[in-house]
Design goal:
This protein is mainly α. The chain has helices spanning 15-40, 48-57, 65-83, 88-94, 97-133, 136-157, 178-235, 240-301. It has one domain (66-234, 243-301).
Protein backbone atom coordinates (compact mmCIF):
# COMPACT_ATOMS: atom_id res chain seq x y z
CA UNK A 1 0.00 0.00 0.00
CA UNK A 2 1.50 3.28 -1.05
CA UNK A 3 2.11 5.80 1.72
CA UNK A 4 -0.03 8.89 1.68
CA UNK A 5 1.44 12.40 1.98
CA UNK A 6 -0.53 15.24 3.43
CA UNK A 7 -0.97 18.14 1.05
CA UNK A 8 -0.15 21.66 2.14
CA UNK A 9 -1.13 24.90 0.50
CA UNK A 10 1.39 27.76 0.58
CA UNK A 11 0.20 31.36 0.37
CA UNK A 12 2.40 34.34 -0.43
CA UNK A 13 3.43 36.40 2.57
CA UNK A 14 2.01 39.80 3.18
CA UNK A 15 4.09 42.75 1.96
CA UNK A 16 4.98 43.74 5.52
CA UNK A 17 6.14 40.27 6.48
CA UNK A 18 8.01 39.77 3.24
CA UNK A 19 9.85 43.08 3.57
CA UNK A 20 10.71 42.38 7.21
CA UNK A 21 11.95 38.92 6.39
CA UNK A 22 14.05 40.28 3.53
CA UNK A 23 15.52 42.91 5.86
CA UNK A 24 16.35 40.28 8.45
CA UNK A 25 17.90 38.17 5.74
CA UNK A 26 19.91 41.15 4.52
CA UNK A 27 21.07 41.90 8.04
CA UNK A 28 22.05 38.30 8.49
CA UNK A 29 24.03 38.34 5.26
CA UNK A 30 25.81 41.54 6.28
CA UNK A 31 26.59 40.15 9.71
CA UNK A 32 27.87 36.95 8.15
CA UNK A 33 29.99 38.94 5.73
CA UNK A 34 31.45 40.98 8.55
CA UNK A 35 32.12 37.78 10.47
CA UNK A 36 33.94 36.26 7.51
CA UNK A 37 36.00 39.41 6.99
CA UNK A 38 36.95 39.56 10.66
CA UNK A 39 38.18 35.98 10.48
CA UNK A 40 40.31 36.52 7.40
CA UNK A 41 41.67 39.96 8.33
CA UNK A 42 40.54 41.52 11.60
CA UNK A 43 39.37 45.10 11.31
CA UNK A 44 41.34 47.77 13.12
CA UNK A 45 38.52 48.19 15.61
CA UNK A 46 38.89 44.62 16.86
CA UNK A 47 42.56 43.92 16.18
CA UNK A 48 44.26 42.82 19.42
CA UNK A 49 47.55 44.50 18.48
CA UNK A 50 45.86 47.88 18.12
CA UNK A 51 44.06 47.43 21.44
CA UNK A 52 47.32 46.40 23.12
CA UNK A 53 49.10 49.45 21.74
CA UNK A 54 46.33 51.74 22.94
CA UNK A 55 46.41 50.20 26.43
CA UNK A 56 50.20 50.49 26.64
CA UNK A 57 50.17 54.10 25.48
CA UNK A 58 47.58 55.12 28.05
CA UNK A 59 49.27 53.30 30.93
CA UNK A 60 50.82 55.39 33.69
CA UNK A 61 54.35 56.45 32.83
CA UNK A 62 57.03 55.12 35.23
CA UNK A 63 58.90 57.55 37.45
CA UNK A 64 62.46 56.26 36.96
CA UNK A 65 64.46 56.71 33.77
CA UNK A 66 65.16 52.97 33.17
CA UNK A 67 61.50 52.06 33.62
CA UNK A 68 60.53 54.97 31.40
CA UNK A 69 62.79 53.71 28.63
CA UNK A 70 61.27 50.22 28.98
CA UNK A 71 57.81 51.74 28.55
CA UNK A 72 58.96 53.72 25.50
CA UNK A 73 60.50 50.59 23.97
CA UNK A 74 57.26 48.65 24.47
CA UNK A 75 55.21 51.36 22.73
CA UNK A 76 57.72 51.69 19.88
CA UNK A 77 57.85 47.94 19.27
CA UNK A 78 54.06 47.62 19.20
CA UNK A 79 53.83 50.55 16.81
CA UNK A 80 56.41 48.93 14.54
CA UNK A 81 54.49 45.64 14.53
CA UNK A 82 51.29 47.48 13.69
CA UNK A 83 52.92 49.22 10.75
CA UNK A 84 54.15 45.88 9.41
CA UNK A 85 50.60 44.53 9.13
CA UNK A 86 49.43 44.22 5.49
CA UNK A 87 46.43 46.50 5.94
CA UNK A 88 45.20 49.41 3.86
CA UNK A 89 44.16 51.40 6.92
CA UNK A 90 47.69 51.35 8.29
CA UNK A 91 49.46 52.00 5.00
CA UNK A 92 47.22 54.97 4.20
CA UNK A 93 48.36 56.65 7.39
CA UNK A 94 51.98 55.60 6.95
CA UNK A 95 52.06 57.42 3.61
CA UNK A 96 51.79 60.76 5.41
CA UNK A 97 55.16 62.48 5.64
CA UNK A 98 54.55 63.83 9.16
CA UNK A 99 54.95 60.34 10.65
CA UNK A 100 58.27 59.85 8.88
CA UNK A 101 59.41 63.31 9.97
CA UNK A 102 58.44 62.56 13.56
CA UNK A 103 60.61 59.46 13.69
CA UNK A 104 63.46 61.40 12.12
CA UNK A 105 63.22 63.88 15.00
CA UNK A 106 63.13 61.02 17.52
CA UNK A 107 66.12 59.31 15.93
CA UNK A 108 68.16 62.53 15.98
CA UNK A 109 67.24 63.19 19.61
CA UNK A 110 68.25 59.71 20.79
CA UNK A 111 71.44 59.76 18.73
CA UNK A 112 72.52 63.07 20.28
CA UNK A 113 71.44 61.93 23.74
CA UNK A 114 73.48 58.74 23.56
CA UNK A 115 76.61 60.60 22.46
CA UNK A 116 76.23 63.17 25.23
CA UNK A 117 75.65 60.50 27.88
CA UNK A 118 78.74 58.54 26.82
CA UNK A 119 80.88 61.69 27.13
CA UNK A 120 79.28 62.54 30.47
CA UNK A 121 80.02 59.08 31.84
CA UNK A 122 83.65 59.25 30.73
CA UNK A 123 84.31 62.66 32.27
CA UNK A 124 82.47 61.74 35.49
CA UNK A 125 84.79 58.74 35.85
CA UNK A 126 87.78 61.07 35.47
CA UNK A 127 86.37 63.29 38.21
CA UNK A 128 85.97 60.30 40.52
CA UNK A 129 89.55 59.19 39.93
CA UNK A 130 90.97 62.67 40.54
CA UNK A 131 88.84 63.12 43.64
CA UNK A 132 90.02 59.86 45.18
CA UNK A 133 93.64 60.85 44.53
CA UNK A 134 92.95 64.36 45.84
CA UNK A 135 94.69 65.78 42.79
CA UNK A 136 93.44 69.37 42.69
CA UNK A 137 94.80 70.23 39.23
CA UNK A 138 93.50 67.08 37.60
CA UNK A 139 90.17 67.42 39.40
CA UNK A 140 89.67 70.97 38.15
CA UNK A 141 90.35 69.89 34.56
CA UNK A 142 88.01 66.89 34.81
CA UNK A 143 85.24 69.00 36.35
CA UNK A 144 85.45 71.49 33.47
CA UNK A 145 85.06 68.64 30.97
CA UNK A 146 82.17 67.15 32.92
CA UNK A 147 80.46 70.54 33.09
CA UNK A 148 80.64 70.84 29.30
CA UNK A 149 79.20 67.34 28.84
CA UNK A 150 76.43 68.19 31.28
CA UNK A 151 75.56 71.27 29.22
CA UNK A 152 75.06 69.04 26.18
CA UNK A 153 72.69 66.78 28.12
CA UNK A 154 70.85 69.80 29.51
CA UNK A 155 70.48 71.29 26.03
CA UNK A 156 68.88 68.09 24.75
CA UNK A 157 66.64 67.75 27.80
CA UNK A 158 65.44 71.35 27.61
CA UNK A 159 64.71 71.23 23.89
CA UNK A 160 61.06 71.84 23.05
CA UNK A 161 61.16 69.75 19.86
CA UNK A 162 60.03 66.54 21.55
CA UNK A 163 57.40 68.23 23.71
CA UNK A 164 55.85 69.92 20.68
CA UNK A 165 56.01 66.87 18.44
CA UNK A 166 52.64 65.98 16.95
CA UNK A 167 51.25 64.08 13.98
CA UNK A 168 48.85 65.54 11.45
CA UNK A 169 45.80 63.49 10.40
CA UNK A 170 46.28 61.43 7.24
CA UNK A 171 45.33 62.78 3.82
CA UNK A 172 42.62 60.28 2.94
CA UNK A 173 39.69 60.67 0.53
CA UNK A 174 36.29 61.58 1.89
CA UNK A 175 34.33 60.02 3.40
CA UNK A 176 37.08 58.90 5.79
CA UNK A 177 36.78 55.27 6.86
CA UNK A 178 36.25 54.55 10.53
CA UNK A 179 39.20 52.14 10.53
CA UNK A 180 41.53 54.80 9.14
CA UNK A 181 40.39 57.34 11.72
CA UNK A 182 40.89 54.91 14.60
CA UNK A 183 44.29 53.66 13.49
CA UNK A 184 45.42 57.21 12.80
CA UNK A 185 44.39 58.34 16.26
CA UNK A 186 46.18 55.49 18.01
CA UNK A 187 49.36 55.94 15.97
CA UNK A 188 49.40 59.68 16.62
CA UNK A 189 48.83 59.04 20.32
CA UNK A 190 51.68 56.51 20.36
CA UNK A 191 54.12 58.94 18.74
CA UNK A 192 53.15 61.67 21.21
CA UNK A 193 53.62 59.20 24.07
CA UNK A 194 57.12 58.28 22.86
CA UNK A 195 58.08 61.94 22.50
CA UNK A 196 56.78 63.10 25.88
CA UNK A 197 58.16 60.07 27.74
CA UNK A 198 61.55 60.53 26.06
CA UNK A 199 61.62 64.17 27.16
CA UNK A 200 60.87 63.04 30.73
CA UNK A 201 63.72 60.49 30.64
CA UNK A 202 66.17 63.07 29.31
CA UNK A 203 65.13 65.51 32.04
CA UNK A 204 65.57 62.85 34.75
CA UNK A 205 69.12 62.10 33.60
CA UNK A 206 69.87 65.83 33.40
CA UNK A 207 68.68 66.29 36.99
CA UNK A 208 71.04 63.60 38.31
CA UNK A 209 73.87 64.96 36.17
CA UNK A 210 73.29 68.48 37.49
CA UNK A 211 73.53 67.32 41.10
CA UNK A 212 76.74 65.38 40.42
CA UNK A 213 78.35 68.21 38.45
CA UNK A 214 77.50 70.82 41.08
CA UNK A 215 78.89 68.66 43.89
CA UNK A 216 82.06 67.91 41.93
CA UNK A 217 82.62 71.60 41.18
CA UNK A 218 82.16 72.54 44.84
CA UNK A 219 84.62 69.84 45.91
CA UNK A 220 87.18 70.97 43.34
CA UNK A 221 86.94 74.52 44.64
CA UNK A 222 87.31 73.38 48.26
CA UNK A 223 90.25 71.11 47.47
CA UNK A 224 92.00 73.88 45.58
CA UNK A 225 91.51 76.40 48.39
CA UNK A 226 92.57 73.89 51.06
CA UNK A 227 95.79 73.13 49.20
CA UNK A 228 96.55 76.85 49.03
CA UNK A 229 95.84 77.19 52.75
CA UNK A 230 98.14 74.28 53.50
CA UNK A 231 100.96 76.01 51.65
CA UNK A 232 100.30 79.22 53.53
CA UNK A 233 100.24 77.38 56.85
CA UNK A 234 103.60 75.82 56.21
CA UNK A 235 105.09 79.22 55.55
CA UNK A 236 103.43 80.80 58.60
CA UNK A 237 105.26 78.84 61.29
CA UNK A 238 104.48 81.38 63.96
CA UNK A 239 100.72 80.69 63.87
CA UNK A 240 101.03 76.91 63.71
CA UNK A 241 98.68 76.07 66.59
CA UNK A 242 95.83 78.31 65.56
CA UNK A 243 96.06 77.26 61.94
CA UNK A 244 96.15 73.60 62.94
CA UNK A 245 92.82 73.83 64.74
CA UNK A 246 91.19 75.74 61.89
CA UNK A 247 92.62 73.40 59.28
CA UNK A 248 91.27 70.36 61.13
CA UNK A 249 87.72 71.74 61.04
CA UNK A 250 88.02 72.74 57.39
CA UNK A 251 89.49 69.33 56.61
CA UNK A 252 86.43 67.68 58.15
CA UNK A 253 84.14 69.85 56.02
CA UNK A 254 86.12 69.01 52.91
CA UNK A 255 85.87 65.30 53.63
CA UNK A 256 82.10 65.57 53.92
CA UNK A 257 81.93 67.42 50.61
CA UNK A 258 84.16 64.84 48.96
CA UNK A 259 82.06 61.95 50.22
CA UNK A 260 78.88 63.68 49.07
CA UNK A 261 80.40 64.37 45.66
CA UNK A 262 81.56 60.77 45.30
CA UNK A 263 78.06 59.56 46.12
CA UNK A 264 76.51 61.91 43.55
CA UNK A 265 78.99 60.78 40.94
CA UNK A 266 78.26 57.14 41.74
CA UNK A 267 74.53 57.81 41.38
CA UNK A 268 75.18 59.33 37.97
CA UNK A 269 77.35 56.37 36.96
CA UNK A 270 74.67 53.89 38.04
CA UNK A 271 71.95 55.84 36.25
CA UNK A 272 73.86 55.89 32.97
CA UNK A 273 74.65 52.17 33.30
CA UNK A 274 70.95 51.44 33.74
CA UNK A 275 69.75 53.50 30.78
CA UNK A 276 72.43 52.69 28.20
CA UNK A 277 70.89 49.39 27.09
CA UNK A 278 67.34 50.73 27.14
CA UNK A 279 68.27 53.86 25.22
CA UNK A 280 70.05 51.83 22.56
CA UNK A 281 67.03 49.53 22.24
CA UNK A 282 64.67 52.47 21.73
CA UNK A 283 67.06 54.03 19.23
CA UNK A 284 67.28 50.84 17.14
CA UNK A 285 63.49 50.38 17.22
CA UNK A 286 63.00 53.95 16.00
CA UNK A 287 65.42 53.34 13.13
CA UNK A 288 63.60 50.12 12.19
CA UNK A 289 60.29 51.98 12.25
CA UNK A 290 61.64 54.60 9.85
CA UNK A 291 62.82 51.82 7.53
CA UNK A 292 59.36 50.23 7.67
CA UNK A 293 57.72 53.56 6.84
CA UNK A 294 60.07 54.09 3.92
CA UNK A 295 59.29 50.60 2.62
CA UNK A 296 55.54 51.24 2.86
CA UNK A 297 55.84 54.50 0.97
CA UNK A 298 58.09 52.91 -1.66
CA UNK A 299 55.71 49.99 -2.22
CA UNK A 300 52.71 52.30 -2.50
CA UNK A 301 54.40 54.47 -5.13
CA UNK A 302 55.41 51.51 -7.28
Amino acid sequence: MAPSFGRSISFPLSPARSSSSSKEKGKGNKAAARHVRSISLPSSRTHPLLAHLQTTVRAAQPASAPAGLAHIAAVAELLLLLLLLPKETTSSFAEDSSLLDAFLVLADAYGAFQEAVVELKRHAADVQAALRRRDAARLASAVRAQRQAHKDVARIASSSILRNLFIRPPHAPQPLQIEVVEVSGVLAEAVSCIASASAAVFSAVEFISSAATTAAAATASSLSSSSKKATTNIISLVKRKSTASSSSSSSSDNQEKELAALQRLQDLHDCIDQIEAGSDKVFRTILHTRVALLNIQTNNTC
